[in-house]
Specification:
- This protein is of the alpha/beta class and 242 residues long.
- The chain contains eleven helices and twelve strands.
- It has an eight-stranded parallel barrel, surrounded by eight helices.
Length: 242
Amino acid sequence: MLVIPAIDIRRGQCVRLYQGQEDKETVYWKDPVEMATTWVKSGAKMLHVADLDGAFQGKPANLKKVADMKKVVTVPIQMGGGFRSMEAIDAAFEMGVDRVILGTVAVYNPDLVAQAIAKIGNAIAVSIDVSEDFVTVSGWKEVSAVKFDVLVDRMIACGVSTFLFTDTRKDGTLSGANVMGIRTFLYAAKGAPVIASGGITSIEDILQLRDLESQGLHGIIIGKALYDHKLSLQEAMQAAGS
């Protein structure tokens, strides 16, 4: 199971938000590019970049940061945050992004998801971020009326082959993973690879999630627990068997 460090960018810095709330921000590193280099030197095989400015504004704002990362690291980088047009998606790949993650458009513009997959293929993934059973949108500021399992079915019909899942109530809280929720999402995904995040804090969390690998859990994204030194990347990777 892959362990992917998170690099959340806001105002040019590496930050973490509590449950995605703009006013509950902690700055961990001034330069996200240096942070990317640090994680790769520590053994990361992939990086997850969240463009928080892009998520809140509705269009990517930190593509240049990822382009700079690609100049100094060789591992794949997946990026989400504000991708709501084909032009923005194309720009990301031109900057060197290896996988673009779509979120809000999955709810409001599924035709764009289908268009992107038809053009780009498996380098497109969809992130379904939930509060209880409902999908959150617009940088988690809004909770839609769409249930996550309904959206999964719609996205599979669009050709989506990889999903990300986040319990927004857990994200940035260091309160432990929602293992039951992740298991339920895996069932809804019908065997499609899933990368999960939200609250993953301890080796015990990782070991519990590793048991779900046979059900389609391909990887986990860890942020605050790494930045707050609750566990090291090496420990997390060892527990995940990666």
